[in-house]
Prior knowledge:
82% helix; 6 helices; mainly alpha
Amino acid sequence: MDYRKRIIPDWTWIAIWLIGVASAFLLPSPALYERIAGLLLPGLCLLLLAMRYGGVGGGDIKLTAAAGFTFGLNTLAAILFLALFPACIYAAVTRQRSIPLAVFLCIGFFMYAGVLFIYGLTC
């Protein structure tokens, strides 16, 4: 939906955040302080960018903050790093300055999960 209409429905980030809340009680990793940092730092950075320059939607801010809480700051940084290359290629090919962030967060997450899976198979 973000790709076609540039809208991130509220149920998506709420579901991701609820998964993060449930996993905070069930899993020891990432630590609560890393989850809180993952919630606040990227969300605040995107909020400041949106207020200063525009172009960052509220759905992008909420989705990134929810993913940061669910995965923790370090993992979110890796996901964003892996999403950067495909996003830059998309922007160059389509010559757009605005990209659908949710699409590339998803791509970055699957790349991160694939790396973990392959690393788990080789170790």
